[in-house]
Fold this sequence. Notes:
The protein is α+β, with helices and mostly antiparallel strands.
Amino acid sequence: xxxxxxxxxxxxxxINEMExxxxxxxxxxxxxxxxxxxxxxxxxxxxxxxxxxxxVEKVEQGCVTLMGQTFVxxxxxxxxxxxxxxxxxxxxxxxxxxxxxxxxxASVVDILKYAILMETRNEVKKYxxxxxxxxxxxxxxxGSLPDWPVENNRILFEIINNVGEIxxxxxxxxxxxxxxxxxxxxxxxxxxxxxxxxxxxxxxIGRKKPFNKIEYLxxxx
Length: 221
């Protein structure tokens, strides 16, 4: 299958329903500034994504092959060994909002861009579910765990080809620009999986679920 380009992706700017802002105080200066930015820049925000549907061609101990490219990862082996097809995807909030950092605090603009990225990722998953029938979608992202480092972005970019169509480039260190961009593999049937379960950084401020030592040892030992 040829790659799918979603550009732009429309998201609802209902700040009260955006995950990132659920704990914000509505009377705070930051909250009011975010609302003002959205009101003044809504039309210029161009979040976008690119996807490619891939066959899982081979799954061997500790390795998974997609589109002729082999990833060495116990995590991917464990999660994809019963899967026939996956979506490689790259999602970005874009960099259009950077133009207003002189008018608004850069830190507040960056919070909004992160929120837009999260909402865009949700829209991509909704698209995959509605169009291709995927249920209980989970995601595996390079760099999220040591077993599958960020260097694997090189392979994802090779498989998708011409990611520049959505304005994303890969740097020498394998991180991506614009800053609020994420890459990964979408697969179905594993709604309860989240990287936090397998992450040993116990004190991480972004932790959403507790570390599961039993599951960690099952996969990586």
